[in-house]
Amino acid sequence: MSATRLIEGFAKAEFTPSELLEACLERIARFNPSINALTAFSTERAIVEASRATQRWKAGAPIGPLDGLPVGVKDLQDAEGLPTTHGSPLFRGNVAERDMQIVARLRRAGAIVLAKTNVPEFGAGGNTRNPVWGATGNPYDPRLTAGGSSGGSAAALSASLVPLCTGSDTGGSLRLPAALCGILGYRPSADVVAHPTRPVGWSVISVLGPMARNMDDLLLMLQTIHGFDAGDPLSSHADPARFDNMPPVSLDRLRIGFSEDFGGAPVDRRVRAAFRERVAAIAPHAATCRPVDLNLGEMDRCFDILRAESFVAAFDPAGDRPVEQFGPHVAANVELGRRLSFHDRAWAHLEQTRILRAFNRRMADFDILLLPTAPVPAFPWEQPYPEEIDGQKMDIYYRWLALTYRGSLMGGPSITLPAGTLGDGLPFGLQVLGPLRGDRGLLGAARAIEMLLARDPATAPAKPDLTKIVPPPVDLRGIATHPPESSRAGTVRTIPVGTAV
Questions:
Q1: CB within 8 A of 452, min separation 6: which ones?
Q2: Minimal CA–CA distance to 115: which of 501, 448, 490?
């Protein structure tokens, strides 16, 4: 059931939060060993909180719009009493003493933090695998990647282990795994969800956001997590009018632009064909739908420098750390940052501004833009990243994410919607971009497109057949080195506050 349907069921006394939690735990025990989406669990606390939520609903006094819903929290974000390992052996014993702001807001809305979701090491890259917890498999085929870096969250939602999950996004970490797992991932404008742990506080590159299985669920979660934090200078105060009571948007009034490749990024021919089919399905219902030139500037080099800057700030601020301890992807970004000059940094910030202004000029003619999200179908998780796309070799591990990271440069909103499957049955994700701080309009348009796509079996969201993946066909934890004993993936165990993992 959707999150909104579950809340309705609580209100009508059709079932209780305790019964929902029990169902989730049973489903996790059955399917999580096959995909390794959830890592550390807080089961005993969740049972107590579900019982309290059950009593509140019986009394007709829920504490918030999410009261009694189990959620998953990305393993880059602190949740009190659970480990935040970042997928790194360096943080294997790091148990959070307090909630990150986004998690605290979920708890205040009544959500029950049940588990952490898997990530690539330090969230670096689009393939969720690390030496602490192992790899996360795609629920459509666990031999394949779930994407990243919010891959554990995307896989957990796709497999219906929990109804809502958190995520974050620098170069596509909310949108890419959503596309590969057939769910929704929303990258908001930088002011929407406070991110007080962002290493470079004034940069719009890294944001936090919600992940869900449909637009109504995503909006339900977004209404609880958006808002201001003094530690994030970009964040805005919560405005109930911004995301509540959103009126329907008529597709026949939307001016839609589209691009197959975001200014020339390499895209697999199967993805191009699927994208053209979705555009053809949407175009007759829109006011206008025409191609747009998104060659906005030197987007790749600009992103390279800004990303390297943030990695140096996070992992090597003094310039003297042995970066090999962080793993190859983080090391590659830090090494790149060490080679850059002050003039490189100045150029990147100037170019980012020029790119935004060029984008604004394009958006003057459109309400939203459509693009593919992932340039290739899901590939085996043993492969760190696709080394070549459509005959073009990737020069660094994240270059294949150009369809998403180029959009990150503008600081505006974008979302991935599930839009049916490719010819091999794997999900296809449609990316929708909006203007800077145009979140409300983007979300309204996305909801209208979601409704249109759902009418046709060829473009409607498809659910994975989980009966085909039990018992596990692969050892997803095989790459983990001494995984934490106190929270085996696939088991349901409590991590008390202060326990070393």
A1: 251, 281, 282, 285
A2: 490
Q: What are the b/e assignments for 275-303, b being 16+ CB within 10 Å?
A: beebbebbeeebeebeebebebbebbebb
Q: Rounded mean pLDDT of 150-167?
A: 98
In one letter, which amino acid is 143? R
CB 133 within 8 A of CB 477: yes
Share of the chain above pLDDT 70, in %: 94
Q: Which residue has the tokens 């190859």?
A: 328
- The answer to whether 286 and 252 have CB atoms below 8 angstroms apart is yes
CB 64 within 8 A of CB 105: no
CA distance 154 to 212: 8
Running DSSP on this structure, what letter comes out for residue 247? P
Grouping H, G, I as helix, E, B as strand and the rest as coil, residue 431 is: strand
CATH number attached to the domain at 3-487: 3.90.1300.10
pLDDT band at 486 (very low <50, low <70, confident <90, very high): very low
pTM reported for the whole predicted model: 0.95
Residue type, 192: V
Q: For residues 215 and 236, is the Cβ–Cβ distance under 8 A? A: no
Tokens of 435: 């203007």
Q: Inform me whether the pLDDT recorded for 489 exceeds 50.
A: no
Q: Which residues contact 384 (CB under 8 A, 6 or more apart)?
A: 125, 127, 129, 397
**73-123 tens-digit pLDDT:** 999 999 999 999 999 999 999 999 999 999 999 999 999 999 999 999 999
Cβ-based neighbours of 101, under 8 Å, separated by 6 or more:
194, 196, 229, 231
Name the nearest CA neighbour of 277 among 424, 455, 459, 452.
Answer: 459
Do 122 and 464 form a contact (C-beta atoms < 8 A)?
Answer: no
DSSP state of 309: H
Residue 58's H or E segment, with its range, is: helix 43-58
- Residues forming the active site: 74, 149, 173
- For residue 2, name the pLDDT band (cuts at 50, 70, 90): very high
Look at residues 152, 218, 217 and name the one whose alpha carbon lies nearest to residue 187. Answer: 218
Classify residue 383 as left (phi > 0), alpha (psi -120 to 50) or beta: beta
CB atoms within 10 A of CB 45: 19
Two tokens, residue 469: 């993946």
Give the span between the Cα atoms of 279 and 460, in whole angstroms: 14
State how far the alpha carbon of 413 is from the alpha carbons of 111, 264, 369, 407, in Å: 25, 21, 11, 9
